[in-house]
Amino acid sequence: MKQILPGLFVGLLFGAGLALSDMINPGRVLAFLDFSGRWDPTLAYVMAGAIAPSAAAFAYRKRMAHPLMAQEFRIPANRTVGWRLVTGAAIFGIGWGLIGFCPGPAIAALAFASWQAWVFVAAMLAGMIVYRLAQDMSRSRRRATA
């Protein structure tokens, strides 16, 4: 419980920021991506506003022996750009550009009973389940042939 409450607080704060900046509105995101029409720079301002606190947090992290709520930092060791990363990023970008939702804003939009957000989150969860099942089947096949 001691580790859940800070995460819950930060998640609620992040969701409130997304709602306040209207990033839970897919139309706002799609307008940002519409360079030839009525371009809306709001998303750029939100991203630019995140740079300063993120930079400060990364700089402060270097001085810390361990995180406040964990024994160690979990920074990915793999820094290579492979086909799985590129494919996943492309699927994410295409989906974001077509629909205007990505996971964080969609989850925050659930609080406002947006049916589009509910459909998106349900499809996202279904995709996660299918991926997990495919991974498990792939591992099982590899074990069987080894």
Q: Brief description of this entry?
A:
With 146 residues, this protein is an all-alpha fold. Helix content is 68%, strand content 0%. It has helices at residues 4-20, 26-33, 42-61, 83-99, 103-109, 115-145.
Describe the structure.
The protein is mostly helical. The chain has one domain. 68% of the residues lie in helices and 0% in strands. It contains six helices and no strands. It has helices spanning 4-20, 26-33, 42-61, 83-99, 103-109, 115-145. The longest helix has 31 residues, at 115-145. It starts with a helix and ends with a helix. The model has no long low-confidence stretch (mean pLDDT 87).
Topology diagram in text:
Blueprint: H1 4-20, H2 26-33, H3 42-61, H4 83-99, H5 103-109, H6 115-145
User: What is the helix/strand order?
Assistant: HHHHHH
Summing up helix and strand content along with how strands pair, one would put the structural category as: mainly alpha
Structurally, the number of domains stands at: 1
End-to-end CA span: 42 Å
Low-confidence stretches: none
Instruction: Supply Rg.
Output: 19 Å
Mean pLDDT: 87
Described by strand count, sense and barrel closure, the largest sheet is:
none
